[in-house]
Design goal:
40 residues, mainly alpha, transmembrane helix, membrane, transmembrane
């Protein structure tokens, strides 16, 4: 296994984790906004 490939795989893995985290946060924010809107 060469260094370039290992570095690329690490980058892809990190990006996918950050992407999932961003989606998770976005969903939480949308749910909270919906709750606040419905409570009016």
């Amino acid at each position: 296994m060469n260094k370039e490939f290992a570095g690329f795989m690490y980058l892809v893995l990190t990006f996918s984790v950050l992407f999932r985290l961003a989606i998770f946060i976005l969903i939480i924010v949308l749910i909270l906004a919906l709750i606040k809107y419905l409570k009016k």
